[in-house]
UniProtKB/TrEMBL annotation, chain A:
Family label: Belongs to the ParA family. MinD subfamily.
PANTHER family in alphabetical order: SEPTUM SITE-DETERMINING PROTEIN MIND HOMOLOG, CHLOROPLASTIC (PTHR43384:SF6), SEPTUM SITE-DETERMINING PROTEIN MIND HOMOLOG, CHLOROPLASTIC-RELATED (PTHR43384)
GO MF assignments: ATP binding; ATP hydrolysis activity
Family matches, as Pfam families: CbiA
Domain of life of the native organism: Bacteria
Protein name (record): Septum site-determining protein MinD
Key word ATP-binding present: yes
Binding site for ATP: K11, G12, G13, V14, G15, K16, T17, T18
Ranges where the CobQ/CobB/MinD/ParA nucleotide binding domain occurs: 5-226
Leader sequence segment: none
InterPro entries in the cross-refs: CobQ/CobB/MinD/ParA_Nub-bd_dom, MinD, MinD_FleN, P-loop_NTPase, ParA/MinD_ATPase
GO biological process, one term: negative regulation of cell division
TrEMBL record, chain B:
Encoding gene (name): minC
Source organism (scientific name): Neoroseomonas soli
Name of protein: Probable septum site-determining protein MinC
Quaternary structure (record): Interacts with MinD and FtsZ.
Keywords: Cell cycle, Cell division, Septation
Protein's UniProt keywords contain S-adenosyl-L-methionine: no
Septum formation inhibitor MinC C-terminal domain sequence ranges: 151-250
Domain of life assignment: Bacteria
HAMAP family in the cross-refs: MinC
Matching InterPro entries: CAP/MinC_C, MinC, MinC_C_sf, MinC_N, Septum_form_inhib_MinC_C
Amino acid sequence: MAQVVVVTSGKGGVGKTTSSAAFATGLAQRGKKTVVIDFDVGLRNLDLIMGVERRVVFDIVNVISGEARLNQALIRDKRVDTLSILPASQTRDKDALTREGVQKIIDELSKDFDYILCDSPAGIEKGALLALYFADQAIVVTNPEVSSVRDSDRILGVLQSRSKRSEEKRDPVKEHLLVTRFDPARVERGEMLKLEDIREILSIPLLGVIPESESVLRASNTGTPVIMDGESNAGQAYADAVARFLGEEKPHRFIETEKKGLLKRLFGGRAA
Amino acid sequence: MSAAPRPETSPRLEPFRLRGANFNLLVLRLLDPRPEAVVPAIGDQFRRAPGFLRFAPVVLGLGDLEVPASAVDFQGLIEGLRGLEIVPIGTTGGTPELRNAAMAFGLPPIRSAGGKEIEEPAPAPAAVSAEPVAAPPPPPPPAGMARPTMIVEQPVRAGQRVWAQGGDLIVTSTVNAGGEVIADGNIHVYGALRGRAIAGGGANADARIFALNFDPELISIAGYYAVREGLTGAPIGKAVQVRLTGERMRFDPLG
């Protein structure tokens, strides 16, 4: 059986789609058969970030309404052959998604894939609820900022009460915290929430911290998931997070200001 | 529907006060006495709004049951409902025989304020388990007997609301900003209290709020409340006990 993983956040613009693309690619690079589904019907973006926007013929709504078969709509990635993308529709709205339709798609994908990533839209309305409904695991994407943390807290509550697992009283959805756009210098200046504070409020295991990086925007604009940029901090941080997701132990990197953090540790970090 | 407890006066001055209060309660009218028929059907229904009905107190309506008391499995019903995080707190309607049977399982008859009255409940049968049934002193409103303390071990998150009806509430984790905890009795938070805490139902002025890390959005006891902006004098971030003295809220450091 495939693992269904929702990438969600509550708030918009925190990096759900970037993280979905990076995670899906990372899992596929490690040989896992992975499909990533864009649930943001009406505002599809995942295909752009994945660089397949010119290959979209059919989308998830076509499949649900029976206008296309699932394998007609799936786009096989050209860089990693164990990776597929199921795009969202640009022209329809979220009402075109139905629970039964999504269930059928997930059941069918479960036969062929190890991981099904669901890239959730923002908010806690229908699209977001459907994206998380079937989840076995959830990656909650949060920025070091109060409103983002509050919305993530809210979505965690929704996961606990409105997922299929909670309704069937099975083991709860496994939750992972992914902090993105983290800027240690701004945290030090008190302009961003500290990592400990975020962890304390959300109290779920930390999967990774992705540093704020220009490489993310560059990657988005060129349609290359940032995890493929092995030079960039953000790419490496995503690779670490994928490794942790698969059960490896990795120390967290990029969470302290560079050099200064090291010097401080050497020369009286206690004073700080 | 609302239940109106009898307002009574206390003989002494300060040990406690009893006041009448009206509560809006959901009545679950049983049309079938079998738990195996009722519980799954409710599960389906309530599932559509699980957050809303979490720990919701309900009154069991017995008026539609035309069976002898022996045919109703109250134990099974109570367990089934609690399994769905719905808390039955009493009964309304039905034959005296049915009401007495329910009382043996800790579900006292509740009088509805506007509707038909049921006659005063007979004294509780002697064999009512270990729960002390307050017979001669007036029973506390609204359920008529001590209710177990509700313990919540998960963080109460933004948008979540936990209500300990008729008793105390203990949260062993945190109450996050945007979360809400309500109890008719006291509230204990053995973590950070960053959301709203409403103790003492509508009337229990002796209820208190305890928090290890006091950082709330709003605090209310027995209808008196203070928002964060007004808490300038309170020891924010400390372990704190909140109580009412007269009409003022008092914040004392703990430990």
